[in-house]
Thioredoxin family protein
Amino acid sequence: MPPMSEASEPWWIVCLCAQWCKVCRGWRADFEALAAQQPQWRFAWVDVEDEEELVGDFDVETFPTLLLGRAGQLRYCAPIAPRPEVLLRLAQGLLGEHAPGTGNAEVLALLQRIIAERS
């Protein structure tokens, strides 16, 4: 099977969280419900402590932190208010074909590792 072109690769919404974080625990059900309602995007919940090998040296300063992008394009990496409408509005604005990317190579590498493991 030939590799997908970048434009045909799915967009990913990745939540970096920790089980000990009360906010993350409360946010997870809403995140998963939004994932079920938005099949055009791929969603991943990554516990930075349970999946320490995957996350590597990437330092999450605030939970929950969100990554939005696809294999070759990072569109967003920052904490998010844990509310579905905030995430939906953010994703709709940033995951369009002409939205600007970001040049953070470390975060893009993390996103690529998560996509490779979860695909």
The chain has one domain: 9-118.
